[in-house]
Amino acid sequence: MAGLELTPQLFAIFASMIEDVCGVYYRASDRSLLETKLSIQAVEAGFASLLDYYYKLRYDDPDGADRRALVQAILVHETYLFRELPALEQLVNGYLTELIRERGRVRVWSAACSTGEEPTTLAMLLDRRGLLDRAEIVATDISAAALAKAAAGIFGRRALRDGHPRELAARYLDVTPRGIIASPAIRAAIRFEPANLTDPASVANLGIFDAIVCRNVLIYFRDEQIARVLDLLHDRLAARGVIVVGVSESLMRFGTGIVCEERGGSFFYRSKR
Amino acid sequence: MTAARDLHLTTAERARVDHVDLLVASDPVPIGELLAVLDDPSWSVRRAGVSALASLGDDGVAELCRWLGEVRTTEHGIAAAIDALVTSRGATTNAAVIALCGHPQTPVIEDAARILGRRGASEAVTTLGALLAHPSDNVALAAIEALGAIGGAGTVEDLVVLIRTRNFFRTFPAMQVAARTGDPRVIGALAELLDDELYRPEAIRALGHTGSALAVAPLTALVEREAGATVGVVAEALTELVSQAARSGASSQVVSTVHAMLAPLRDRFVVALATARDRVPLLNVLGMIGDAGTLAVLAGSPEPAAVRAIEVLARRDEDALLIALASADPALRLAGLPLASSARVAPAVRAALADDEPEIRARACEALARIGDVTAVDALFAMLDDPSPRVGHAATAAIGALGVAGTAARVIAVLRSGSTRVRRHALRLVAYLGSDGLFDAVVGALGDPDPRIAELAVAALVSLGDPRVDATLATAASSASETVRAAAVRAAGQRRLESIVTRGLDDDSARVRYCACQALGQLGDARHSAALVARLADAAPQVRIAAIEAIARLDTPETWQILVSVAHSQNPDEQRAALIGIAGHDQPVATDILLAAARAPELATRLFALSGLVRSRDPRALVALGAALHDDHEAVRDAALSLLDERDDRETSELLLATAAITPDPAAPIHAAVSRARPIRIATIAERLATADAVEARALAAALGRMADPRATAALFGALAAPSAAARREAALTLVAIGAPGAIAAATDLARRDPDPDVRHACAAAVKL
Predict the structure, then answer these.
(1) Residue-wise DSSP of B448-464
(2) Could you tell me if A158 lies within 8 Å of chain B, comparing CB atoms?
């Protein structure tokens, strides 16, 4: 009953609007997916057609609140604990451990952390090495709803997948009927902040980081947008800092001021500065 | 072009390129001087020479061929001459290059063969076929590759002979090229190589490339006697086999054959999965041949391919579906629910209503509606209070679709629910059911403290036939709430209550004025044109746009002029609203405006313009839509294709066929569009098939096969008597591949009686005579 038609023309209009708000780019093949998501939002907001809904968002949303609400509602929050673990282990056990030994403290940014599984994993890995109190973990996301879930530290059952490290799970996670709950020390070690990776102003006050983990996010952006986001991340990166992206993402084609280096089978990007 | 080229040139190179331009502009063109450019040390200058010579067409062909046959000064000069002949647009080029195949020097023949392959010269197939037996391996290899590039099954028997020679240099490429013809005659030769360790892996893969169900038997025999890595290679081949069979619409026949022959051997694939580096092909095969017992193996596999395999398996095997629905893995439950369609699985689906995952609960609602499980109505009403809007809407739709007796009474009951969510969904059900007995309950909802409920109640009134509805709408149109007034004006438009609508035009709220403009558009009465024109100066852009949309529905000279004027608005939304109206007028001015808008910088505007052009009979519209098929933006290409797909006329069919012919990827959407069953499209394809050469015949017959439509199948049967032998052969092979009733008898008849030996042999192989 919520099914409203998203014609190719309307799809182009909405895809452009969503990209403007959050950088995420929907491809033509995603039309059906976006149609389902938009239909529900439009009907819930009282609109009988997606074109009416578009005009509301375009011309009757002076502070952009409705557009942001739409984006928050349709963004993908699919992630899980210990996702692509080897790269995080390499980051913690190699790079961050060395840096803490050298400088005493590190700052890590989990960018676009969704519902918090990634920073929680990072915190567990740091604590296992006894380094959690030497690290400041800042986790950000554009979605206030996702951040609220993240801050609660309670994850759905799908957050734990086959092949996860049982020793870490047993030590830090409590599997309850309410969901999977991270231990209080792990939750307390992460500071959650709202931030939009396509808006430099929204990350300006986050400070400088020794490591920025931004995984499985850039895949949703077009190349021009990725280049802009990389510039933004680069500006937040300490002199010897590293950027960690997802295993299926490569930044080499962007020719920005970063170089790729391989550490134990994982690829990190370091500033050329 | 020169400017872009200059960026990469030194001063000296630029001077020489300019000289080439001067030579081309001369009359007559000094071809000898242009040929000398082929030896220039600079690649950029040689490229300019190649372009110049190619552009001469027939005027340059003879000299280029003479140069290639007799002069051949340097390697890079030869490469440039080849490029010039490959890109030459001369009508005599293919014939001239075919003549070079009789040259005494083997390097010249080799070059000629390569040129013909790169040109896709189907008239060279016989010549190239003769070169397969050339004493020089290089010439034979060039001929094989050229035949592969040209495609078609014109020389299958020559290629089969080469495969059987087991000549290292010729057998491998011959296998690859022969297999891709899809001709059943190659299967026996490929199967023979399965016994030879040197050729076995490539022979397995080649069997997969045939796309023929006949390839399954030799692969099955191999799995019966081999284990380990070979099983993985067979799985790759079987995956490819199904994919290739889809070209001619025969994938379901191939999948059935794979299942029938390989299901008893499924354990071998399970064993291979445990150690395979590439697990995806094995998972694909297990989807085709697995049973409920296989599901545990698939469920433990983390790859998305495992979920796809489970979908394939569960679609065929309801026991497997039940296991998937009860699985602890949410991915399996998600994959299984859209497949649930029988009462037997209904209990498992009902259980999924309590799932943790909102998407699973929503799919369970949808599945219950599909199954028609009326016993689930109570549970579905309970889902109206689900915190996920997706689930609530799915439950609402399911209740509406099931439509059991007593639903209206239940709706009245839940309209008194303490949950806002439930009351909102209940009103959506009212709008869907439209039962007059619900009037009082709906009016009660007008006073609901939730503003959305009151708005939904107004919208629900439209569907009721109660005589009090109009008066109630008039009252609602004076509500203090702008959303209620807007809903009332919209509802008034649907019930043609003109006075309510026109009053809305002067409302303080832009939302109400917007709805009023829309409602006037629905009324479509030219008497309101002045009121709408006045709204073109509204302060709210969305009201202006709604006014334009409404004006577009009023067919008067004045409104037409307004649309033409607004079509040049700086506001893209206003412009697009005008384009929608302009598209309704099939006249040259409208086409001019739409053609201009089809080149607009905004993607959405281009799409609106293309959408408008699809209805135009102006030949320029078809040209623009055809050009959009090659647009840089995927969304434009997709839209153009789907718009062209709506047109069923000869010109559009020809355009689609021409585009498909230059799109080699069989998975490209153009091939799906070509094979959409439309009466004129079928007739156009059938007509061209009747006289097609080997290459075209295969593509056209496959397109008809993919249609899976009785009219297309009839056209294939008709082609069995076509003048073209290639058409008869491909039609027969396609009919057998798709399992058309009567196909075996028809192919058997051709195998015995067709005047062309190639047709007789191909048909005999297809029916295994």
Answers:
(1) -SSHHHHHHHHHHHTT-
(2) yes
- pLDDT score at B765: 95
pTM exceeding 0.90: no
Q: Confirm if B609 and B600 have CB atoms less than 8 A apart.
A: yes
The answer to whether B607 contacts A163, with C-beta atoms less than 8 Å apart, is: no
ipTM above 0.85, yes or no: no
What lies within 8 Å, CB to CB, of A12 at 6+ separation is B603, B604, B607, B635
3-state secondary structure of B497: coil
Could you tell me the two tokens for B170? 């010729």
Cα distance from A40 to chain B (closest Cα, Å)? 6
pLDDT digits (tens, 9 = 90+) for B260-282: 999 999 999 999 998 888 899 99
**Does A264 contact chain B (CB < 8 Å)?**
no
Using an 8 Å CB-CB cutoff, list chain B residues near A162: 300, 302
Residues in chain A: 273
C-alpha B113/C-alpha B86 separation (Å) is 11
Concatenate the DSSP letters of all residues of B134-183 into one string.
Answer: -S-HHHHHHHHHHHHHH-SSTTHHHHHHHHHHT-HHHHHHHHHHHHHTT-
DSSP class of residue A93 equals: I
Max Cα–Cα distance, chain A, nearest Å: 61
Q: Please indicate whether, in this complex, the C-beta atoms of A59 and B541 are within 8 angstroms of each other.
A: yes
* Sheet hosting strand A258-263, strand order edge to edge: A190-194, A135-141, A106-110, A209-213, A237-244, A266-271, A258-263
Here the tokens at position B460 are 């629900």
Looking at every residue in chain B, the average pLDDT score rounds to: 92
Q: Phi and psi at residue B678, in whole multiples of 5°?
A: -135, 140
pLDDT tens across A132-184, in order? 999 999 999 998 888 998 999 899 777 887 678 989 999 999 988 788 999 99
Residue A131 C-alpha, separation from nearest chain B C-alpha, in angstroms: 32
Contact at CB, B545 and A44, closer than 8 angstroms: no
Q: What is the structure's pLDDT at B113?
A: 96
**Measured between CB atoms, which of A15, A55, A156 is closest to B356?**
A156
Q: Is A265 on the interface with B (CB under 8 A)?
A: no
- Give helix then strand counts, H and E, for chain A: 12, 10
Structure tokens at B71: 């002069």
Q: Tell me which residues of chain B, numbers 149 to 188, contact chain A at a CB-CB cutoff of 8 Å.
A: none
Of A2, A3, A162, nearest to B302 by CB-CB distance is A162
User: Is B421 an interface residue toward A (CB < 8 Å)?
Assistant: no
Chain B residue with CA closest to A29: the answer is B635
Separation CA A202–CA A205 (nearest Å): 7
A contacts of B302 (beta carbons < 8 Å): 161-163
Burial class (CB in 10 A: 0-12, 13-18, 19+), B373: buried
Among B194, B160, B193, CA closest to B177: B160
Q: Which residues of A touch B604 (CB under 8 A)?
A: 9-10, 12-13, 16
Q: What is the C-alpha R_g of chain A?
A: 20
Side-chain-side CA neighbours of A41 within 13 Å: the count stands at 25
The minimum CA-CA distance between B603 and chain A, rounded to whole Å, is 7
Distances (CA, A) of B361 to B50, B333, B370: 64, 10, 14
Instruction: Convert B691-711 into a string of H (helix), E (strand) and C (coil).
Output: CCCHHHHHHHHHHHHHHCCHH
Residue B549 CA to residue B556 CA, distance in Å, equals 14
Interchain contact B654–A (C-beta under 8 A): no
Instruction: Measure A88 CA to nearest chain B CA, in Å.
Output: 20
- C-alpha span between A169 and A154 (Å, rounded): 14
- List pLDDT tens digits, range A24-69: 888 888 888 899 889 999 998 889 899 999 999 999 998 888 998 8
Q: Cβ contacts (< 8 Å) between B547 and chain A: which residues?
A: none
